[in-house]
Amino acid sequence: MVLSAVRGGLGFLTRLPVGGGETEWDAFRRSPVAFPLVGYVVGGLAALPLIAPLPVSTAAALYLVVLYLVTGVTHADGLADLGDAAVVHGDDERRMSVLKDSQTGVGGLLALGLTLVVLALGALGLAGAAGRVALTAGVAIAVAAEVGAKAGMATLVCLGDPAHEGLGSALVSENGPLGLFRVAVACLPAVALAPLTGEAAVFTALVCGPLVALVVRSWGRNHLGGVSGDLIGATNELARATAIHVGVVTWTLL
C-alpha cells in the first residue's frame, strides 16, 4: 500500500517517469504519509549539485534547475493563483473565481517572483554551507526543507476542509488528523541528518512546512471557505523557501 502510494505521489508531485495509474493515485490520496517520503527523493536529487566541486553561484543555480526539472511548475502555478486571490478586492466568491482563473495577474506574478528570489538567495546559502563543510550542512538542510515542505502539504490535506469540488477535495476529503501521526514518523529519518549540521537546523527546517501550512489553512478557511489544490501547491513553494532560510540561519548562528 505504501509503495503504491509513494509511486502515486511521485507521479503526482514530480515529473519523474515512474508510471502508475488509477490504483497508485487512489493509494496516494488516501495515504498522506507518501508526501514526506516523496520529499526525500526530491530533496536528494535537488541537492546533488551542492556536493559537486562547483562555484557557489553555479551550484545554487543548478539546485534550482534540478528542483524544477524534477517537480515541474504545477505547485508554482498554485502559488501564482494564491497571489492573485490574495490581492483581489471583493468577497470570498470573487476570490474563488480569481483562484480558478487560468490567467496570472499582478498579485500572482509578485507572489511567484518574490518566492523565487527568496528561494534563489536561500540556495546561495545552501551552496555556501556545503562548500564550507563538505557534503554536509547544505545537503542536510536542502533535504530536510523538502521533506518539511511535503509534510506541510500533508498537514493541509489532513486538517483542511475542501473549498470546492476538485483536485484539492479529492485529497482533503479522504484524510483526517490521525493521518498526521504517520506523516510525523515518516519525517524522523531526516533527523539522521542532524550530525551533519546540528539538530536545531534540521528540526527548524522540518517544522517550517507544517507551520506555513497552518497559516495557509487559516487564510483559506477565512477567505475561501477551505483548502483547494492551489493552496496545497502554494504551501509547498512557500514552505520550501522559508525552511531553507530558517535552516541556514539556524545552522549559521548555532
UniProtKB/TrEMBL annotation:
Reaction catalysis annotation: alpha-ribazole + adenosylcob(III)inamide-GDP = adenosylcob(III)alamin + GMP + H(+); alpha-ribazole 5'-phosphate + adenosylcob(III)inamide-GDP = adenosylcob(III)alamin 5'-phosphate + GMP + H(+)
Domain of life (superkingdom): Archaea
The protein's annotated pathway: Cofactor biosynthesis; adenosylcobalamin biosynthesis; adenosylcobalamin from cob(II)yrinate a,c-diamide: step 7/7
The EC number(s) this enzyme carries: 2.7.8.26
Name the UniProt record assigns to this protein: Adenosylcobinamide-GDP ribazoletransferase
A Pfam entry, by short name: CobS
Keyword Cell membrane tagged: yes
Organism: Haloferax larsenii
Gene Ontology terms, MF aspect: adenosylcobinamide-GDP ribazoletransferase activity
NCBIfam families: cobS
Function: Joins adenosylcobinamide-GDP and alpha-ribazole to generate adenosylcobalamin (Ado-cobalamin). Also synthesizes adenosylcobalamin 5'-phosphate from adenosylcobinamide-GDP and alpha-ribazole 5'-phosphate.
Needed co-factor(s): Mg(2+)
TM region(s), chain numbering: 37-70, 104-127
Record keywords: Cell membrane, Cobalamin biosynthesis, Magnesium, Membrane, Transferase, Transmembrane, Transmembrane helix
Gene name of the record: cobS
Primary localization: membrane
Compartments (UniProt record): Cell membrane
Organism classification: Archaea, Methanobacteriati, Methanobacteriota, Stenosarchaea group, Halobacteria
Homology family: Belongs to the CobS family.
